[in-house]
Structure to design on (984 residues):
């Protein structure tokens, strides 16, 4: 909202303070600066505040605001006096104000760095987390204006306000003076305040999703008068799923006496419905959506699923229509799935919501599925349906103008009905937040992602996202650092999801292979080696093997402490007449189920070729087996966690039971295989009659089964490591001059820095890097042979002569570098050869540098991506690594574990560790260098690019021969500021 001309002209209206926020109950509100145009809103707001709240605010009865009060509370300079308001539907529901004061508590201006702060929240909105959100935003505003402390006077009886200050996580002091509590808050963010902020963000955003997935009532706006059409299809699916709440059909074209449609009440508007409507599914043309949104907002609807098309996917006009849709919905406190969405499904027995166009609704299960594409959503639902997999929730977000995959990661993080999260993403609206949320979620349950539109310029037209310069390979590496299982296709996503949802995590990479086909076993063996697993030699049961033979062999493999998982391969049995026998799939499935249920908790996957009914029988989770006990008894083994369960410790002789529907625990012979989590279960624990059996994933090709298993192995390893996070070594602090670096950066950028930034000269870069203990070997210019000889005499022989022209830099393959020049004659000869071959000295810009000890040439880089944040990269120097893309990446700040993994994750890493008999290089020194670069970029966001090339790593120590640094005014860090919803 822009101010009127009366607003103080010397301080422009700070529109960057405007923000949409999600409150504790999942509703939204808008925070913005108060302007002179808000007088009537302020008076109306104050009239709705109770006398008690007014007393708490002013410490005395204060029934109404005087004209002087109204003028004071609506006229601000946005520096020393600032007021913010929280609005819903355009009306105030809360305000906050600060006034800068001096050490005596009198009004002041800068450099005074303390301010008095006061809040007032309408009684009807207290308890929604309004004051907590306001405190975050007013604190950020204060820091921007040079204020470092807040002072507040609170009556002792005002427990709610005291709690807001106490729980914020800021460093604070409290005293009791003159009958009131005096609070002083240090506004510098702390680890505790950031944790508090993110915890509130998670709970609020999860609640906003829950309101959409578990409504008490649903209205379908646009349900047609005749069968067919989008709205009528959604209405039919709602009824078909057995939605447990109330359902309404809304269409302004209904006759006044319409009565019902498909047996549900029919109305011409939401306003005609005399009961609360929680969720509205909007299926009307785009030009009629604003009317429907206003109807919903004015009558208390909590959320919208907008199926209507005609928005950002249609170009500039559609993008503006989409922005207006989001602004309108949020102004009423509503969140949106869509537009251009396919719908939502919640299979919880307490809800049974199918507000989608899905032709084949999935069965209930433990997988959560989010997709940005309706077509991909249909394909995934169909594939899961055919393979007998069940879903907890399904969301197709379309253009995801508001609610995105980040919101659903917040929801699934604590959702007891979801063990595995599957996401098909075509764009990342907030990559930094996605990485943070994915890391936290992956620590408790798997997150499997397929990233569509991976190549530059191919972002779907309906998605407005920040520009990112990092390649897809870097995005993939950063996802894996966060524990995300990144796969290439939706088929691989389903394959991995089925294994992770129904099987425990493997304890390691050792794989037993058994089956009745030697050839299929060898294919599986080769696939395991290709995926980095450690397969045992395949066990051939021969084509004469019976289901009982399979059961015995699987039980023996599971009991073997030398294997962590089992792949069973099976082909059809061939009868005596040479024809393949059919009908044995269910028998074999029963045998495998029985062995898996009775054995130690290890993942089992089946590869089969044309065995009728096997996949379906393996996917069943409610059968009961009564086969003879296997001849090989299971031995006690340590039990790894299920994919979506917290890690447990201690030995377990078999699959331990878990409560139905909890999604936690480990599976054993006593586990309830008929429960939703698909774990094996038994009526008895002796492996005899009455064992209820769990799902075992089946695959039509060995490569698919092994790839899914390999992803589970890598994820399990990441989770074990994540349980003990890395750290930045404290010893670095003794050799880092952070204040000195900050002062130098300010000097180099100058008072009016160019927003495009500036590259540092060689000596400037050396000085800045030196403040962080990074020594760059000096170079001296050599504009002519005489200068080169003088430089060599100063540095000492042997020396290197190299060009620094941009087109030749770091291109030894073009002949621009001469090494090991031991004396003056060799240097003069090399200088002549260089200029004769490549051009004049003025073009080549040659320099002389002392030789470094021999070692491996490497490259260390750090860059700031506007979307993903700071990225630390490492690789070997030279064209082969560049051509093959053999570079590893980690997000900044990097820990000691990140640095160690970084140098070991490139394919050429063996060169650093003594390849072909060479001496291993000093990787400890290399890890320290990586940590120093990470710390520099993290401490100083003005450092937007660093490239150390080459870094020669010897057997003892390393030498940085070249460095380039670029500075720029620091980009905005939305991930560290107060909570706010993105605006695309």
């Amino acid at each position: 909202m822009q101010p009127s001309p009366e607003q103080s002209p010397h301080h422009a209206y700070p529109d960057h303070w405007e923000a949409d926020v999600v409150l504790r109950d999942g509703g939204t509100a808008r925070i913005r600066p108060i302007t002179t145009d808000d007088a009537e809103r302020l008076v109306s707001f104050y009239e709705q505040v109770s006398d008690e709240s007014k007393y708490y605010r002013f410490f005395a009865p204060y029934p109404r605001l005087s004209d002087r009060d109204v003028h004071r509370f609506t006229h601000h300079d946005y520096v020393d006096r600032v007021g913010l308001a929280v609005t819903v539907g355009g009306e105030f529901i809360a305000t906050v104000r600060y006034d800068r004061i001096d050490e005596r508590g009198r009004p002041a201006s800068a450099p005074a760095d303390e301010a008095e702060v006061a809040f007032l929240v309408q009684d009807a909105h207290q308890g929604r987390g309004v004051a907590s959100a306001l405190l975050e935003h007013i604190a950020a505003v204060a820091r921007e204006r040079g204020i470092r402390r807040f002072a507040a006077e609170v009556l002792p009886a005002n427990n709610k306000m005291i709690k807001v200050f106490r729980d914020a996580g800021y460093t604070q002091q409290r005293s009791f003076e003159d009958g009131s509590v005096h609070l002083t808050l240090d506004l510098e963010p702390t680890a505790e305040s950031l944790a508090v902020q993110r915890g509130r963000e998670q709970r609020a955003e999860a609640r906003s999703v829950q309101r959409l997935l578990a409504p008490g009532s649903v209205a379908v706006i646009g349900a047609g008068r005749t069968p067919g059409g989008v709205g009528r299809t959604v209405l039919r699916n709602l009824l078909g799923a057995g939605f447990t709440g109330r359902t309404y059909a809304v269409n302004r074209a209904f006759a006044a006496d319409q009565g019902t449609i498909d047996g549900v009440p029919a109305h011409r508007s939401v306003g005609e419905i005399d009961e609360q409507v929680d969720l509205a599914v909007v299926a009307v043309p785009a030009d009629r959506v604003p009317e429907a949104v206003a109807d919903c907002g004015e009558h208390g609807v909590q959320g919208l699923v907008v199926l209507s098309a005609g928005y950002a996917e249609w170009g500039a006009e559609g993008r503006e229509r989409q922005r207006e849709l989001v602004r309108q919905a949020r102004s009423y406190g509503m969140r949106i799935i869509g537009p251009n969405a396919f719908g939502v499904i919640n299979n919880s027995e307490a809800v049974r919501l199918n507000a989608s166009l899905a032709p084949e609704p999935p069965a209930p299960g433990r997988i959560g599925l989010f997709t940005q594409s309706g077509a991909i959503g249909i394909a995934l639902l169909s594939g899961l349906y055919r393979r007998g997999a069940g879903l907890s929730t399904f969301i197709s977000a379309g253009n995801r103008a508001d609610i995105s995959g980040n919101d659903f990661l917040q929801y699934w993080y604590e959702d007891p009905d979801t063990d595995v999260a599957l996401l098909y993403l075509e764009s990342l609206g907030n990559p930094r937040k996605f990485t943070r949320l994915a890391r936290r979620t992956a620590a408790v349950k798997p997150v499997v992602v397929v990233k569509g539109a991976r190549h530059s310029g191919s972002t779907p037209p309906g998605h407005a996202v920040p520009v990112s310069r990092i390649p897809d390979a870097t995005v993939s590496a950063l996802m894996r650092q966060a524990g995300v299982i990144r796969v290439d296709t939706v088929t691989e996503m389903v394959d991995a999801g089925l294994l992770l949802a129904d099987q425990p995590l493997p304890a390691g990479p050792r794989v037993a292979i058994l089956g009745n086909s030697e050839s299929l076993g060898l294919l599986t063996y080769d696939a395991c080696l290709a995926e980095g697993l450690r397969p045992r030699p395949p066990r051939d049961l021969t084509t004469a093997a019976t289901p009982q033979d399979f059961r015995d062999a699987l039980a023996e493999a599971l009991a073997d402490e030398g294997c962590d998982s089992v792949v069973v391969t099976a082909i059809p049995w061939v009868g005596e007449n040479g024809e393949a026998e059919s009908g044995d799939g269910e028998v074999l499935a029963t045998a495998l189920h029985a062995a898996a249920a009775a054995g130690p908790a290890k993942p089992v996957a089946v590869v089969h070729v044309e065995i009728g009914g096997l996949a379906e029988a393996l996917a069943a989770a409610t059968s009961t087996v009564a086969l003879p006990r296997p001849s090989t008894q299971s031995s006690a083994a340590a039990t790894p966690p299920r994919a979506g369960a917290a890690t447990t410790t201690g030995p377990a002789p078999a699959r331990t039971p878990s409560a139905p529907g909890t999604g936690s625990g480990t599976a054993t012979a006593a586990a309830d295989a008929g429960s939703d989590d698909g774990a094996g279960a038994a009526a008895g624990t002796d492996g005899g009659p009455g064992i209820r059996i769990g799902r075992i994933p089946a695959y039509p090709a060995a490569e698919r089964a092994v790839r899914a298993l390999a992803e589970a192995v890598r994820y399990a390893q990441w989770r074990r490591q994540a349980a003990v996070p890395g750290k930045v070594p404290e010893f670095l602090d003794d050799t880092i001059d952070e204040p000195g670096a900050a002062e130098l950066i300010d000097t180099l950028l100058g008072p009016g820095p160019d927003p495009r930034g500036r590259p540092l000269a060689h000596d400037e870069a050396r000085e800045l890097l030196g403040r962080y203990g990074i020594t760059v070997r000096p170079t001296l210019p050599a504009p002519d042979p005489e200068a080169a000889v003088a430089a060599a005499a100063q540095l000492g022989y042997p020396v290197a002569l190299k060009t620094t022209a941009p087109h030749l830099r770091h291109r030894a393959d073009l002949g621009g570098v001469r090494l090991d020049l031991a004396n003056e004659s060799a240097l003069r000869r090399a200088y002549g050869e260089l200029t004769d071959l490549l051009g004049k000295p003025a073009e080549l810009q040659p320099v002389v540098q002392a030789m470094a000890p021999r070692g491996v040439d490497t490259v260390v880089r750090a860059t700031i991506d506007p979307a993903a944040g700071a990225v630390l990269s490492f690789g070997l120097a030279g064209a082969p690594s560049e051509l093959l893309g053999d570079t590893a990446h980690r997000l900044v700040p990097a820990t000691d574990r990140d640095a160690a993994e970084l140098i070991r994750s490139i394919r050429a890493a063996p060169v650093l560790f003594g390849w072909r008999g060479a001496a291993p290089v000093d990787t400890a020194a290399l890890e320290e260098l990586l940590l120093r670069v990470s710390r520099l970029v993290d401490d100083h966001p003005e450092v937007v690019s660093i490239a150390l090339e080459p870094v020669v790593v010897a057997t003892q120590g390393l030498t940085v021969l070249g460095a380039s640094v670029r500075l720029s005014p620091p980009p905005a860090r939305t991930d560290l500021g107060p909570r706010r919803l993105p605006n695309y």
Observations:
- Residues 445 and 644 are 4 Å apart (CA to CA).
- The chain has a mean pLDDT of 86.
- DSSP finds 27 helices and 44 strands in the chain.
